[in-house]
Design brief:
The chain is an alpha+beta fold. Helices cover 25% and strands 24% of the residues. An eight-stranded mixed beta sheet has the order 2-5-6-7-1-10-9-8, sandwiched between helices.
């Protein structure tokens, strides 16, 4: 009897030992221990940063600390107006705010434009599309402020330009809260006659700019007031070529900065 009881006790002890064996404990560690790291982590971030602008064909980054005008590109503008949603005509002349204050006024600028050979449209009637421009002054795209045509002779001279073709310009004033300089930004060009539907002439953007600048630098007068302009030629403000240019007509990329002095 004693031997039977001793054998039963030994069997019970062995069963308890097996139930608490290290093998099972090790299995428990594997099954219930810390989860293994994922093979790949997925990282979520905020909105993708915009790509930096690309400058090509001679265009350079925006210019800071200019005197008498502010580079529109500093505040999202550009040196090409908006004729269509994407295409436009070059803003190829600036009349600096260092100019005669009379010329910087609306009425004064119109008289100055007459002194260098331009006048309002035939009988004051506008034909064609209104252009917009963003001068980076905080006002976004705004309609052209002035459209003047070459004034061939004193009476209905701009009517002849509408038929024969010639030079004309559009002007906007930089006067928003982000860049309240008062400078005039001008898009000048030369167009073909009415039989060609007033399309821009070959090299018409460069020719229109040069015509305006030549007359301004030569000096002019109107009703006893005399002016002469200094010119500074700038490159790098817009690309050369026909990228984003209406009609696909290439430009040389130069902008004339005029300072108009009263004599």
């Amino acid at each position: 009897m004693k031997s039977s009881a001793l054998l039963l006790l030994l069997i019970q002890t062995l069963i308890l030992y097996i139930s608490a064996s290290p093998v099972e404990q090790a299995q428990q560690i594997v099954l219930f221990g810390p989860t293994a790291p994922l093979p790949q982590q997925i990282v979520f971030s905020g909105p993708t940063a915009p790509l930096p602008p690309v400058y090509d064909n001679g265009e350079e980054p925006p210019v800071k600390d200019t005197v008498g005008w502010v580079d529109p590109r500093l505040n999202g503008g550009r040196f090409i107006d908006f004729t269509t949603r994407k295409l436009g005509e070059p803003l190829n002349i600036i009349i600096s705010s260092e100019s005669d204050p009379f010329v910087l006024e609306d009425s004064g600028f119109r008289l100055y434009a007459r002194s260098i050979g331009y006048f309002q449209e035939c009988f004051g009637l506008h034909y064609g599309k209104i252009h917009e421009a963003d001068l980076g002054d905080g006002l976004g795209r705004k309609d052209e402020h002035i459209l003047f045509r070459q004034h061939y002779f004193p009476i209905i001279g701009t009517c002849w330009e509408s038929v024969r073709g010639g030079h004309h310009f559009r002007a906007w004033r930089q006067n928003g809260t982000l860049a309240n300089t008062g400078a005039w930004f001008i898009g000048a060009s030369k167009e073909k006659d009415s039989s060609k539907n007033h399309q821009i002439d070959d090299d018409g953007y460069n020719l229109g700019r040069d015509f305006f600048v030549e007359h301004a630098v030569a000096g002019s007068h109107w009703q006893g007031m005399w002016w002469r302009a200094e010119v500074e030629w700038r490159t790098g403000l817009m690309p050369a070529g026909n990228k984003s240019i209406n009609h696909g007509i290439p430009v040389d990329g130069r902008v004339a900065i005029l300072t108009v002095h009263r004599l």
